[in-house]
Amino acid sequence: MKYDLIIIGAGPAGLSAALDAAYLKLKTLVIEAHGAGGALVQSYPWKRVDSYLGLKGMTGKEVAERIIGHVRSEGVRINDMEEVEQVHIGKPFVVETSKGKYECSAVIFATGIRGLPRRLGIPGEDLKGVEYSLQDPKKFRGKAVAVFGGGDSAVDSALGLESAGAKVWLAHRRNDLRALDESKEKLKKSGVKILWNTELEKITGKGKVEKVVVFENSSMKKTELKVDSVLISIGSSPSKVCLERIGIKMDGVCASVDENGMTSVPGIFAAGDIVSSLKRIPQALATGEKAAYSAYKYIKDPYWK
User: Please, are residues 22 and 294 in contact by the beta-carbon 8 Å criterion?
Assistant: First the structure.
């Protein structure tokens, strides 16, 4: 099937690009390897989204449902649970997926930088009860949970678990967090017990998590904690395979783009976390819109561009 534009990724950036493309009358297909909504539903469907004007108080899942519905109402097709395997460069581009092949005049990558969750590679990491994302804090009510990490995701998860009625430890290998100041203030007022300069040595249990052994990395003093679950929140290993395979120039984990959002391959654009230093919804929406508008000019070549 032929399209004007194919967008790879259905998070905020990809959906923003899709909406703009629909207004510009481009025949558009969005392809998503997981569920549409991106990190809003994959990483924090329970968290309140307060970082974008007009969405205060809504959860990630509610925001995702609203923007997905908006995009679909404009006639954009969204294929989720369909993984892109290769993009063949040419006129037209051919996007090959796990379910078929599609032709288009331009492509926007809005895949984010979230890949497979990073593992610690320690004994017991495969036990039942070891998690890498928090889908529903309420499931842990009355449970003891050890969270490992020092960024926004780890802090948000610790706060969400504590608010849901869990007993929570937050362990970080350093003596300061990489989270937002607002989150740090909430953490101070919460009942979360913070373990500074602390790392996880092993997880033990008979088939499921029962205890963890942690150590303070300056004194090497070890402590054993009895827990029901472990949440490892130390980031992810981004997948750059498809981008690098087709010759897109990278800047670390991000795609290098020009002022129009175009990559080093003409006709291929990028948006969202994969290009922005600020991994937040407002920036994702803005870069998605820019990429779609630039793709329109590339495809239609209007006299006024």
Answer: no
